[in-house]
Every structure is written in C-alpha cells, then in structure tokens.
Specification:
By secondary structure, the chain is mainly alpha-helical. Helix content is about 70%, strand content about 0%. Helix 2 packs antiparallel against helix 5, helix 3 packs antiparallel against helix 4 and helix 4 runs antiparallel to helix 5. The radius of gyration is 16 Å and the shape is elongated.
C-alpha cells in the first residue's frame, strides 16, 4: 500500500517514518496513531474555538503548540504551520515568533481568520489519510 500523492498536505518522508513502524500489511500500528490523532485534532479544534470565543490568548497559544507537535509528527505540514501561527498569535507574537506590539484584539482577529483555514487543511489531510487506510468515514 503506497502513499498516494498528497501534494503539500502531507510530507511523504515524515509519514513514511510512521509507516516503517508497522509490522504487517494491514498497517494496524500506524493506523491507530493516525486515527488517534484524528480524535485528538477534532477535540483540539473545538477547544480552540471555545477559547477564541472566551478570548483566552494563553490557552490558544498552548493549544496551537500542542496540535503543532502532533501534526508535525505525522507530516501534516500545512496544519503544523497554521498551528504554529496560532501558537505565536496567542502569545502576542508575529508570524516569525517575535514579540509584537499589536493589542489582543488584533491577535484574536488573526486567529479567528486563521482557524477555519487550518481546519480545512486538517480536513484535507484527514480525507487523504482515511483514503490511504481504506476508511471513508469522517
């Protein structure tokens, strides 16, 4: 079972490292990691939306950091990059991670604009990975 062309949604070399841990053709080990990530990501996106509504900057930064790491492990590059921005904005930093002078409302607006994009990037990667594992249920 070869990894299909995933465009820029998934880094093939990173994901291949996960696949190398499988012992069988069924890919049970990697599948459990990936599907566990789906549940984790879904819950984290919901929590991010809640924290955005509550204007909890520090929590948004922490959640962005958390999901950045998980998505990086699987090679979900667009999700990783978007979550890194959420992490920075929640910490009142610019895209590069440097301190910025804008007020909280500016950073919250940036996160509000970015969150649906990151979610769509995640949904695209999820769709591709589910197809790879022969599971079409979102």
């Amino acid at each position: 079972m070869a990894l299909p062309d995933c465009g820029d949604a998934i880094d093939p070399s990173t994901f291949e490292q996960i696949l190398e841990m499988d012992d069988d053709e069924e890919r049970e080990f990697s599948k459990s990691i990936v599907f566990g990530f789906f549940e984790q990501a879904s819950n984290t996106f919901e929590e991010m939306q809640t924290k955005l509504n509550e204007k909890k900057m520090k929590d948004l930064s922490s959640l962005g950091h958390f999901l950045k790491g998980s998505s990086a492990t699987l090679g979900l590059t667009k999700v990783r990059d978007g979550c890194e921005k959420i992490q920075h904005y929640g910490a009142r930093k610019n895209d590069a991670g440097d301190d910025a002078l804008e007020d909280d409302s500016t950073f919250l607006a940036k996160i509000k604009d970015l969150l649906p994009i990151v979610r769509r990037d995640y949904e695209d990667a999820e769709k591709r990975l589910r197809a790879f594992y022969g599971d079409s249920n979102p």
